[in-house]
Amino acid sequence: MDCYTANWNPLGESAFYRKYELYSMDWDLKEELRDCLVAAAPYGGPIALLRNPWRKEKPASVRPVLEIYSASGMPLASLLWKSGPVVSLGWSAEEELLCVQEDGAVLVYGLHGDFRRHFSMGNEVLQNRVLDARIFHTEFGSGVAILTGAHRFTLSANVGDLKLRRMPEVPGLQSAPSCWTTLCQERAVHILLAMGPDLYLLDHAACSAVTPPGLAPGVSSFLQMAVSFTYRHLALFTDTGHIWMGTSSLKEKLCEFNCNIRAPPKQMVWCSRPRSKERAVVVAWERRLMVVGDAPESIQFVLDEDSYLVPELDGVRIFSRSTLEFLHEVPAASEEIFKIASMAPGALLLEAQKEYEKESQKADEYLREIQELGQLTQAVQQCIEAAGHEHWPDMQKSLLRAASFGKCFLDRFPPDSFVRMCQDLRVLNAVRDYHIGIPLTYSQYKQLTIQVLLDRLVLRRLYPLAIQICEYLRLPEVQGVSRILAHWACYKVQQKDVSDEDVARAINQKLGDTPGVSYSDIAARAYGCGRTELAIKLLEYEPRSGEQVPLLLKMKRSKLALNKAIESGDTDLVFTVLLHLKNELNRGDFFMTLRNQPMALSLYRQFCKHQELETLKDLYNQDDNHQELGSFHIRASYAAEERIEGRVAALQTAADAFYKAKNEFGAKATEDQMRLLRLQRRLEDELGGQFLDLSVHDTVTTLILGGHNKRAEQLARDFRIPDKRLWWLKLTALADLEDWEELEKFSKSKKSPIGYLPFVEICMKQHNKYEAKKYASRVGPEQKVKALLLVGDVAQAADVAIEHRNEAELSLVLSHCTGATDGATADKIQRARAQAQKK
Q: Which residues contact 784 (CB under 8 A, 6 or more apart)?
């Protein structure tokens, strides 16, 4: 145990800090870190170095080189910088490298040096140039803050949704501030800057002077400032060598330390652990590293070479040309177990397990001591927690073996925490490997989440490892393996040295019908890379036509898109393609394309019937479809033309088309309609009233209602209306007029071709029983019973039915007998029925 705590350094009486090596860096740096612009992403993220930046002592012909490494020093990308002078580098939360140029342009690169996009910080920044810049992270995303040559600040809180904000002017600021930083307070971004002995806080509306409470007197300048990882705390380094630490709101002082060094430090960062009450700041000079906090003494380390500090959630990463180290506060569980002469439950359990492996009876003594104090559950939990905070697998195993040993003597200890810790450590050990180079701590891993870690593995193109982790943790396919395979496929299509056939086959063999994978998304990526044929091959594997068609249209493969839309049977999809084709092709080619696709042609005709009638006529003309052309002109004569001459002309065109289509009936009917229109116009001119657009029947009826019986008869003869129909029309019209005298004359004019039952029915419909009885006597024998029942003469109807000896008529009359009124008639029918049965 003594050896294990050899690198523990006490800070005061309540905290220990340790610094241990994570990796031996194998990068081949040709220059010192001090000669490079450096940016390192948190959460074990990558490191970016811009070699040979623009310095006066360098020849102008030397182009700077931008290099990107993993945290372990494995090279990821290298490219010559061909753009303008760079002022600052920084990583976004999505691990995109932001390069802020002197002209205010921000260039965004991927992890592998691929250019993503660029944006500008505004015209004012362009005119005044950039003096300094900061890339910061908030709950909204990653932001950029700019100090211009005019000593004004401009910032954007989220580069993903760029909204530039010009901060208020600082009164009296004639030169660059001695130091400045960004603060996030109450969901807003502020700028804190130092000008001589004064501090100013800029928000979106005003500039206000602020004073740190309890600051030692004699300060004439602030040389450095640092905000904590969570933006809750602030540290200020003064020219008197004092380090003031307090809340970022500058309302509360935590402590102040005199380091007795007045030289400005290269870097100053916070080093604190989540849920810990201890607060410490790490200050770096050229060859010295100091850890200070609320204690009279500090921890000091000698730096053998140029180093760079990277603040983390629970510590500080320190990298140099040769090593990557991690400095942090020793977690409470580890301190309890490993500190010298510890009698904590976890320490006793660890000793008990070791003695058990030696087959020593001391194991039982230690175990009994823990059990007597009732602390066995606490001991197991301490060992599990401490295992999570250990970097080296051997120590992890030792602690987990102790926890497993202790669990055997507990009846109801839930295994979830133990199993989950084993899984988490296996994942962490895998990504901490030198070749992977993501040195996450347990606290960082929990804050980052497994989904983000998988995204970062995918970003590094470590697809096999990401898939193994998904399978090991049994993540749902859509969130795990399927998503990673889709990313792999999108990367695969970018490999232009492999043929389209081989890439498409490899992707299909690997993906198959994996749920959650969209071949259309992969095809879109292939098209974006200029591989149109590969995109088409990949779309063949896409089962959803709704995903295939839009991309085919985008690729200008409209005819193939039309085939796919027709195969899908989705009419909306077909209409989408047709409208796209119509805008893309000239009229002749468009019609020829439709001719080869009957279903598409039929749908387009339906569309044209409602939207584009002239196009519909052109379609019929091109196809020599005279039948439909005739129907089109008939509809047009009613819909478009108001003048009678125009309508007749349209109908004549329709009749000609019907003759060409050998539709004699259609042609004759159209000619009759033309004749009727001319006649109706003449009737309107001579008689007044409304005749146009009435049918032949309605025209006859209207004439009869107007008292023009002779004209009605002449019209009936001209249009060969049958006598029966004419009698019905005249009967109905005269009844509507209630001209009973004329109706009686009409009924006697000659023998009725429709009989006299209709006269009875029409009169009763007009509630005129008197007139109905006149015609009931003239009704023929076969309809006599019905006529008598209509006029209400049930008794006479019964006599006629009995006379006819017709069972159906007897039943009909019987159904009309009601109550006592027709009781005698009903009895009479029943007797007639009985006599008929006897015979």
A: 776, 797, 800
- The Cα-based distances of 255 to 245, 247, 279, 289, 311 in angstroms read 5, 10, 9, 19, 20
Residue 797: burial class (beta carbons within 10 Å; 0-12, 13-18, 19+): buried
Contact 346, 331 (CB under 8 A): no
DSSP track, 566-608: HHHT-HHHHHHHHHHHHHHS-HHHHHHHHHT-HHHHHHHHHHH
How much is the CA Rg of the chain, to the nearest whole Å?
49
Q: What is the pLDDT of residue 437?
A: 94
Contact yes or no for 216/242 (Cβ under 8 A): yes
DSSP H or E segment with residue 145? strand 141-148
d(CA 154, CA 131): 12
How far is the C-alpha of 63 from the C-alpha of 51, rounded, in Å? 9
Contact present, 273 and 314 (Cβ < 8 Å) = yes
pLDDT digits (tens, 9 = 90+) for 463-510: 999 999 999 999 988 888 888 888 888 888 887 878 888 888 888 888
- 404-435 pLDDT tens trace: 999 999 888 889 999 999 999 999 999 999 99
Quickly list H helices, 661-783.
664-687, 696-705, 709-718, 723-737, 740-749, 757-765, 769-776
Integer angstrom CA distances of residue 662 from 25, 443, 501, 567, 672: 92, 87, 55, 36, 17
Q: How many CB atoms lie within 10 A of CB 759?
A: 27
- What is the torsional sign of CA 742, 747, 753, 757? positive
Helices first, then strands: H and E counts in the chain: 33, 29
CB-CB neighbours of 175 under 10 Å? 8
Helix (H) or strand (E) holding 598: helix 598-611
Q: Distance between alpha carbon 444 and the CA centroid of its chain, in Å?
A: 29
The pLDDT score that the predictor gives to residue 195 is: 93
Query: Taking a C-beta distance cutoff of 8 angstroms, is the pair 463, 481 a contact?
Result: no
Q: Which residues contact residue 360 at a Cβ distance below 8 angstroms, ignoring those fewer than 6 apart?
A: none
The HSE-up count of residue 259 (CA atoms within 13 Å, CB side) is 28
Residue-wise pLDDT for 318-351, tens only, equals: 999 999 999 999 999 999 999 888 899 999 999 9
SS3 labels along 33-61 = HHHCEEEECCCCCCEEEEECCCCCCCCCC
pLDDT tens sequence across 26-53: 888 877 888 899 999 999 999 999 976 6
pLDDT of amino acid 331:
93
Q: Which two tokens stand for residue 267?
A: 């870097």
Distance in angstroms (rounded) separating the CA atoms of residues 377 and 370: 9
Using the 8-state DSSP alphabet, how is residue 100 labeled?
E
The per-residue pLDDT of the chain, averaged, comes to 84
Cα–Cα distance for residue pair 254/228, rounded to 1 Å: 13
- What is the pTM assigned to this prediction? 0.73
pLDDT at residue 762, rounded to an integer = 77
Task: Give the C-alpha separation, 130 to 104, whole Å.
Answer: 6
Please name which of 383, 351, 386 lies closest in space to residue 367, comparing C-alpha atoms: 351
Q: What is the DSSP letter of 159?
A: G
Region of 437 please: left (phi>0), alpha (psi -120 to 50) or beta: left
Local confidence band at 56 (pLDDT 50, 70, 90 cut-offs):
very low
Look at residue 704 in the predicted model and tell me its pLDDT.
72
What pLDDT does 1 receive? 45
Angle subtended by helix axes 376-389 and 362-372, to nearest 10:
110
Closest CA to 68 of 45, 46, 85: 46
Helix (H, G, I), strand (E, B) or coil at 418: helix
Which contacts qualify for 808-811: CB closer than 8 Å, 24 or more apart? 809/785
The number of residues making up the chain comes to 839
